[in-house]
Amino acid sequence: ILNVEQSPQSLHVQEGDSTNFTCSFPSSNFYALHWYRWETAKSPEALFVMTLNGDEKKKGRISATLNTKEGYSYLYIKGSQPEDSATYLCASPGANNLFFGTGTRLTVIP
Amino acid sequence: GAVVSQHPSWVICKSGTSVKIECRSLDFQATTMFWYRQFPKQSLMLMATSNEGSKATYEQGVEKDKFLINHASLTLSTLTVTSAHPEDSSFYICSARDSRTSRARGEQFFGPGTRLTVL
Q: Which residue of A2, A49, A62, B94 could cross-link A99, Cys pair, CB 3.0 to 4.6 Å?
């Protein structure tokens, strides 16, 4: 079992503000780090799969960085919009499955 | 993109009955599917890994006789909650990984989940 932690648990931001949150994971035997976005009443959707230390990936206004040596990843959202409201999950692969954090629930207030 | 469907999306049943939940990969083959359960305010907890053509691998603490998993084809896995009780009420969600991708780099594709309420 891999201990994957996310903070904060929930977050409220005003529309237009930028925000970020954290995922921490065991740095030993690192293989990959996944980020998912889970909107209410929809399926979790993969955002990024990151494998290399120092990786930075971007998808529109959302980007993520990875530090495998210290065991953390940041997810950034620039200029938050109401449609960004969702739970953001990170996960680290085990032998044949993913271990998920508890997620950060983001609410963007119009 | 890869789509996973899950049926039903919600179900209410009486205590003692069995409930079957289906998970289908619609446009890709999945030799491996995963069943998760989510308790309120908690993370997705892996219940079992469903392997096409063989027995499922259950996580510690998950009763295999209670949560029957069948993965009869490359696109369908089913979870049957047998003799359901109120404590089985939860959100169940499945995912599938495209058979062509590696375990780490290949993201999982999720179904929309099933809300089970046992009265």
A: A2
